[in-house]
Design goal:
Length: 272
Amino acid sequence: MVAEPGSDHLDWLAVPANVAQTGGLAGRKKDVNMICVTEETAIEMDVGEYIYISIHKTWADARAYCRQYYTEYSFVSSQSDHDSLLKAAGKNPLSGWIGLHRHADNSNIWMWSGGENVTYLNWDKGQPDNRDGVENAAQIWGNGKWNDCDEYSTMPFYCISVPNVEGKMSWEEALEHCRGTDRDLPSLLSEIQHLDAQEVIQLEDITDLVWIGLRFLNDRWLWMNGDSLVYEAWAQGDQDHLCPTQKRCGALSKTGLWKNWDCQDVLNFLCI
Ligand SMILES: [Ca+2]
């Protein structure tokens, strides 16, 4: 179903008022907590968000889950990354797998699941000890330090989600496409998330504007997953978005500013 031009009749988008008020993904993905990363992290790693998954899985099953529902297993390249990752579990660090495992042919070599270089380690005292010779994967303990552990143990785990640039569609088709793959058009809630998104859209063959999850409905701009609109990045002096008669969908430009744009226009877009 496609909304009539100029109308705000978008029932199929299904953003219940209670989700809009309580914010975030609470109604959609109950087992995740999401946080944004630091600026340093964003620049170093080009990372979106760390996500703590409370379901208990083996190391390999957790990897499959991260790849199916997010981007990758968590990887950590600095102390600030690590601080961000720990916060994904909430107030206190929680035990769980990260994407670090021993090389199949050389047990002295550790590798990240996504192939990133190992530039940072945070082993607890006396670890990794490879007890009984079966501890081939890394977990975070409740004290925030790492331990090598039997990869067939089951426990919660940490994933990472990075926005992907997708092919060209109208805004509503883009939203449908993201949701059809259990993702969403992104909310850019902070300057950091904003920098992340801006960085991934710089390639030459990507349109100058890309769709994000921003939509003018009921006389105000909203993030479509219900997040509150706290951080904003409209171009200075741009008045058109204040009361848009036609251009009621939000796009991010390569220069990092938001533009209100014609929803029917066909642009690249981000899914997260
Ligand atoms: Ca150990």
